[in-house]
Amino acid sequence: MAPSNPRDWNAPALRARLLKWYEANQRELPWRQNKDPYSIWVSEIMLQQTRVAVVIDRHRVFLERFPTVDALACAAEEDVLALWSGLGYYRRARMLHQAAIYVAENLNGRMPTTSAELRKLPGIGAYTAAAIASIAHDERVAVVDGNVERVLCRLAGWEASSGSGATALRKKIDGLASELVDPRRPGDFNQGMMELGATVCLPRNPQCLVCPIAEHCVTRGEHKAAPRARMVSREIAHALCVQTRRGEREVLLEQRPASVTVMPGMWELPALGNADVPEEHLRMAVRHAIMQVNYFVRIRDVNEDEVTELAGPAAGKRRWVRADELAGLPLTGLARKVLTRAHLLVAASGSKAAAMLL
DNA sequence: CAGGCGTGGAA
DNA sequence: TTTCCAAGCCT
């Protein structure tokens, strides 16, 4: 039975075991190639609520296009959003861009080095500030992300609670994390904890038999998570309206208003008022999940004459976009998916050609 | 403090 | 097929 008093966790042994395991088992990831704070910063923002597998390629492309804080600060927001297209949570990109501008204009292009100073930048919360400071600058501060929270709850035998209990639990978790973090190698310790949560101490199937700190763990795998909201399904239709001018293919797109809360200013295919699409006009059907809504989307081939009568009330501003311009526009994930499938846009993932289009 | 904010792929 | 996410942050 592991002790419940944090002072009895045998932190030195736990640290040694975790670090040894991390050295042997850490994944090779682009943002671990060096300790460039800017590269780590970009990775941490991209990784917020987003899977590592998705971020790997996006991080590489982003750093090729915007290699430094100054390069990012000089960019137009539209170009930053275009590069972010498909990653979701676009506010992250806007705040990253705003923060880069602040650093360039007020800090002589030099990023803050302490977690307290980093925390003041837009888009950088407690987690991200601690992650950048500990990984890039070896600041002795613990990170607590979803992984670390789960690992520590299992380690200590704490159950998830709601309301004010959640706040109290969170304070206990933060306290334990600070107690355990290795003062000599905080960056590696923090990454080790997250790596353990991501690859061993999994939410549903914890691999306790290969866990390096199993003997420090109270529960050996038990962990109740808070229940989530149910998904709902919805049927919608969008128009795929293509024309050829001067030998170039163009597609009709619509820019979402700046005033909407979801994906403001992003470009998408015009929405149709009727979700029922006759078989002969059905170009493709895709599923697209946004938040807790499962959209079953029908894409209808529509000619220029039909588009106005078929479309719902035009929410945004429409324009014809040449196929070779598409990669430079901030497209919604759905628009990107459809245009890629329709061979109007080259798949961005793993493609040098796609990066060169930008 | 609860709710809003995206996505593609695993289970 | 449908659910459930994944290295949070802001208001």
UniProtKB/TrEMBL annotation:
It is an enzyme of class 3 (hydrolase). Its cofactor is [4Fe-4S] cluster. The keyword Metal-binding applies. Pfam families: EndIII_4Fe-2S, HHH, HhH-GPD. Residues 46-199 form the HhH-GPD domain. It catalyses: Hydrolyzes free adenine bases from 7,8-dihydro-8-oxoguanine:adenine mismatched double-stranded DNA, leaving an apurinic site. One of its GO terms (biological process) is mismatch repair. Coiled coil: none annotated. Belongs to the Nth/MutY family. Adenine glycosylase active on G-A mispairs. MutY also corrects error-prone DNA synthesis past GO lesions which are due to the oxidatively damaged form of guanine: 7,8-dihydro-8-oxoguanine (8-oxo-dGTP). This is Adenine DNA glycosylase. It comes from Occallatibacter riparius.
